[in-house]
Amino acid sequence: MAVSSARVGLLLALAVFFWQSIPSAAKVFTVGDSIGWTVLNSPNYTAWTFSKTFRVGDSIVFEYNKQFHNVLEVKKADYTACNNDSALATYTTGNDSIILKTAGHHYYICGVPGHCLAGQKVDILVAKGKAVALAPSPSAPSSSAAPSISPPFSSSNPPTSSSLAHAPSVGARLMLSVTLVVGVVTTCFAVLLIGF
């Protein structure tokens, strides 16, 4: 009976190992979704991050009117105090894409006086575990740089062509499916070798 329990334990360990080794496709997140990076309508970026899981290899995109905003990456103390004197990095294009390269907290604020204090700051917590960079989906036409005035994070807002452009491509889904099949076949082969 002890041998049978050992086999079951080994089978479960193999299944967990292969399940954990299945990579997830790298994702692109637009900070604030349809509202973007702004102080208009008092967006709640903490609530926005709450429903997201960020992984190493994912990208975050800050979309904003560069005449009125910017993005500064800062340390935690500067994030908390809304201090823009010691920025780790500064972004000013109005469409800044940042690849998340390390796990842990990444802090971003708007460096325009008063904006961070008004809530234009975001703490991106990157989970351990890598996302796989895959070929991007076809791009949708870009929207204007004018700030959105629609309410953010509303369930009544349908997905936009911009958000659909970040959906996993057919190639990404195929790669994940193939990885899953290989894991299952390998686990079955291991079961046959054990003599279940």
Automatic annotation (TrEMBL):
Residues 27-128 form the Phytocyanin domain. The lineage of its organism: Eukaryota, Viridiplantae, Streptophyta, Embryophyta, Tracheophyta. Residues 1-26 form the signal peptide. Keywords: Copper, Glycoprotein, Membrane, Metal-binding, Signal, Transmembrane, Transmembrane helix. It comes from Vanilla planifolia. GO terms for cellular component: plasma membrane. Gene3D superfamilies: Cupredoxins - blue copper proteins. This is Phytocyanin domain-containing protein. The keyword Disulfide bond does not apply. The chain crosses the membrane at residues 174-194. One of its GO terms (molecular function) is electron transfer activity.
